[in-house]
Amino acid sequence: MSGVLVAVYAGSFDPPTNGHVDLVERAAKLFQRLIVAVGRNPARTPLFSPEERLELLRHVCAPYPNVVVDSFEGLLVDYAERVGARVIVRGLRAGTDFEYELQIAHANADLRPELDTVFLPTRTNYGFISASLVREIASHGGDVSRYAPPVVCQALKRRFGR
C-alpha cells in the first residue's frame, strides 16, 4: 500500500449537483487523493452519457488539485482495489439514505474488509437536492442555478432545448 490515503467518491452524477460538489470539496480536504468515479450501469438509461458526465465533473472538480475524475463498471469494491483506495466516501441526505447506505457499506466490508466507508452528511442547504430533482425541474424549463454548477445548468439547457 502506498503512503497516500486514497478515497473514492462514486455515483452516477447524472447530472452533478451543488450537493455533489460540496461533498467533493469536503472529502478533498480529508484525503490526500480523491477519485470521483462515475459508475457505468448498462441497465440504466442516463440523461447524460458517461463521457458527458466525466466532462462535467472535470469542470466542477478542477479547483481541487488532489481530485481525479474517472469512471468504472462493475463492483465499486473491485474498482477501489484497482486504484489503491482505502476509503469509500458516501453522502447522506436523510435517514432513509443512511439505512440504504449502511446496508451497502456492510456488503462492501464483507467483500473487501480492508475498505472503510466514510459517511458525510450533506450541508443543510443541499439536503433536498438530488440529480433526479434537478433533471425534473430542468426538463420543464425551471431554473436550477441554485442546485447545480453553471456548466451543468448550461448542459441541461442544451439537452432540453431551453
Keywords, separated by commas or semicolons:
globular, five-stranded parallel sheet, alpha/beta, Rossmann fold, about 20% strand, single chain, about 160 residues, 6 helices
* Largest sheet: number of strands, sense, barrel closure: 5 strands, parallel
**Total discrete domains:** 1
Shape: globular
Which regions contain 5 or more consecutive residues with pLDDT less than 50?
none
Rg over CA atoms, rounded to whole Å, is 15 Å
Number of strands: 5
**Percentage of residues assigned to helices:** 40-55%
User: What is the CATH T-level topology?
Assistant: Rossmann fold
The structure class reads: alpha/beta
CATH class value: Alpha Beta
Distance between the termini: 49 Å
Which percent range describes the beta-strand content? Answer: 15-25%
**Average of the residue pLDDT scores:** 94
Strand order of the largest sheet: 3-2-1-4-5
Q: What is the fourth-level CATH superfamily?
A: HUPs
From the coordinates shown, what is the CATH architecture?
A: 3-Layer(aba) Sandwich
What is the string of helix and strand elements? EHEHEHEHEHH
Explained architecture:
This protein is α/β, with parallel strands linked by helices and 162 residues long. The chain has helices spanning 18-30, 50-61, 76-82, 95-111, 131-139, 150-160, and strands at residues 6-11, 33-40, 67-73, 87-92, 116-121. Helix 4 (95-111) links the parallel strand 4 and strand 5. It is built from six helices and five strands; from the N terminus they run βαβαβαβαβαα. It has a five-stranded parallel beta sheet, with helices on both faces. The protein has one domain (6-128): 3-Layer(aba) Sandwich (Rossmann fold). The termini are far apart.
